[in-house]
Backbone:
């Protein structure tokens, strides 16, 4: 009896030490899988916004992701009553003011070019002025607002800040913070 | 210290130290197999052989493959395919076996479902088998990343995005799995590790469990007959081989088993030498490009049915349906409420349920390959709904099944 209670104590003591060790090593394993500091720090992309042409999609790169830059033409801005969303049955025109970035007198769509469904890259069709994702058939209008499921929302807008004619991606400026607060982007 | 005597032979020397006589009896000559079985009972051995082929070809590929985003594509498509003598052989064996192994797994699974081999003490055989299916799926997916072609990259992107959990937006989890914002070096190296070490070790452990689970309930037979293996094996050992309902695993059963394996290997190497193309997606012969999605992204044929269950719904519903499809097979022994452990043909409504499930999965598989447009979308949606419906119906129809 005396022996067995001693064994019981030794078992519990070992269990406690091993338990702490197991939790600690799980923590180390979790941290080892985290993105490396060099990956996280890999940077900021600066775009010169005066170089883009109207209705011509340019794909830039930020943190390994494609960034869509689409300068809006006057025709694309006059979409009241057009661009009906299959999801809501309403025009997506009000998004022009909310989702676009105004630099000087020009309006730009700047967004992460990955479908919000499962991350494929939608293609831009200049004739119809919309995006089509080939993977699962999702569609977006010229402000990259979703018009046909399965994507749950418009294309996400990366953190940005406006510096004169330049746009810096990766840094959250006041315009971006406002978009985030109003739920325009995630 | 046990008592050792001077060995009379090499066999005796080993037998005194390792009990090889006893081991041989337990594993082979006195491991009993029913007589009333058919060629479908050879699928287990075919899977073992295919796994061995994957292991051997994988070892040779491993010697030249480079898990680096800049080198991986060329190490496969140039070094292995053009420079290494017979490198093409290992690659084509590996690629074809990875595809064919799923064909055999599906036959093995549906054989089990048809003959009720997941009931009456055989639940753990079924559950360990489904865990093996999950492990093989993970192994296939991680291996698919390694050539670092366009399909590797984009399949990696799409599948890891599933872990964001739709509206949960667990982007942090996705980045953690990848080790980067997008699939890159960290992603490739860790999936390489999973593919060549962690998952194969898990598979080997699960194979051990799967075989162990067979020992007490024994192999099922094609008539759903309950055999008393102790009585029948005694009859066999007493010399009444014709009257006994069982035979030895080796060499009796193995002789025919290996015969089926022989036919299979002819088919397998025919594919390796003349029709390997089906296992080599042409899109994956373009190097990975994170700024260009291929026009159609589709998985290999063996994942198409579950992909098609994901596809016709919105993100959240799709993910729930997909998760349902991934786990529901594990619960088969408990969802089937009937005590009957006989072939589906003798089980009333379950017979129709079995064939409906098989046809539905073939339908889902064919729709999954087609672009998600028009009629295909609609057929896919109804096939996905039928899949879920069939599993909801299963406990109801089996509850009212008459005892046979």
Residues:
């Amino acid at each position: 009896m005396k022996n067995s209670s001693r064994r019981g104590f030794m078992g519990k003591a070992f269990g406690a030490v091993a338990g702490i060790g197991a939790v600690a090593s799980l923590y180390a394993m979790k941290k080892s899988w985290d993105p490396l500091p060099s990956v996280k720090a890999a940077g900021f992309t600066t775009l010169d916004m005066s170089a883009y042409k109207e209705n011509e999609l340019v794909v830039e790169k930020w943190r390994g992701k494609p960034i869509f830059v689409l300068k809006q033409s006057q025709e694309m801005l006059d979409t009241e009553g057009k661009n009906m969303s299959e999801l809501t049955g309403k025009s997506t025109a009000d998004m022009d003011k909310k989702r676009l970035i105004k630099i000087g007198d020009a309006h730009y769509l700047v967004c992460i070019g990955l479908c919000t469904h499962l991350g494929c890259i939608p293609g831009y069709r200049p004739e119809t002025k919309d995006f089509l994702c080939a993977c699962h058939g999702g569609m977006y209008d010229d402000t990259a607002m979703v018009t046909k499921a399965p994507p749950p929302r418009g294309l996400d807008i990366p953190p940005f800040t406006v510096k004169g004619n330049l746009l810096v991606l990766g840094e959250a400026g006041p315009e971006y913070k406002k978009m985030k607060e109003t739920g325009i982007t995630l | 210290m046990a008592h050792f005597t001077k060995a009379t032979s090499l066999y005796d020397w080993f037998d005194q130290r390792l009990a090889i006589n006893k081991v041989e009896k337990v594993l082979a000559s006195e491991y009993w197999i029913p007589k009333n079985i058919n060629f479908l009972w050879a699928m287990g051995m075919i899977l073992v052989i295919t796994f061995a082929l994957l292991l051997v070809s994988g070892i040779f590929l491993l010697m030249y493959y480079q898990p680096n985003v800049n080198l991986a594509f060329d190490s496969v498509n140039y070094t292995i395919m053009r420079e290494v003598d017979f490198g093409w052989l290992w690659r084509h064996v590996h690629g074809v076996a990875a595809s064919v192994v799923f064909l055999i797994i599906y036959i093995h699974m549906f054989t089990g479902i048809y003959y009720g081999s997941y009931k009456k003490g055989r639940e753990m055989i079924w559950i360990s088998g489904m865990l093996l299916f999950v492990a093989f799926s993970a192994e296939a997916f991680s291996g698919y990343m390694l050539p670092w072609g366009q399909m590797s990259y984009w399949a990696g992107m799409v599948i890891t995005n599933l872990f964001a959990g739709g509206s949960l937006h667990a982007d942090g989890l996705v980045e953690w799995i990848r080790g980067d914002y997008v699939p890159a070096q960290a992603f490739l190296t860790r999936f390489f590790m999973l593919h060549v070490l962690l998952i194969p070790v898990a598979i080997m452990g699960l194979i051990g469990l799967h075989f162990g689970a067979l020992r007490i309930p024994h192999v099922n037979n094609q008539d759903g007959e309950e055999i008393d293996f102790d009585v029948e094996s005694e009859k066999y050992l007493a010399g009444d081989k014709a009257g006994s309902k069982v035979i030895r695993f080796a060499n009796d059963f193995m002789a025919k088993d290996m015969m089926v394996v022989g036919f299979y290997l002819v088919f397998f190497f025919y594919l390796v030498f003349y029709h390997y193309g089906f296992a080599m997606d042409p899109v994956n012969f373009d190097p990975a490009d994170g700024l260009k999605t291929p026009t159609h992204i589709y998985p290999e044929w063996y994942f198409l049915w579950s992909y098609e269950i994901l596809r016709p719904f919105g993100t959240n519903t799709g993910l729930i349906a997909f998760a349902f499809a991934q786990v529901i097979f594990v619960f088969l022994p408990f969802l089937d409420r009937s005590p009957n452990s006989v072939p589906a043909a003798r089980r009333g409504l379950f017979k129709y349920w079995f064939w409906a499930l098989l046809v539905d999965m073939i339908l889902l598989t064919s729709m999954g390959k087609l672009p998600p447009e028009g009629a295909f979308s609609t057929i896919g949606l109804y096939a996905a709904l039928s899949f879920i419906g069939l599993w909801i119906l299963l406990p109801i129809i089996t509850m009212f099944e008459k005892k046979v």
The two ends of chain A are 64 Å apart (CA to CA). The mean pLDDT of chain A is 82. Residues 2-32 of chain A form the longest helix (31 residues). Chain A is about 30% helix and 25% strand.
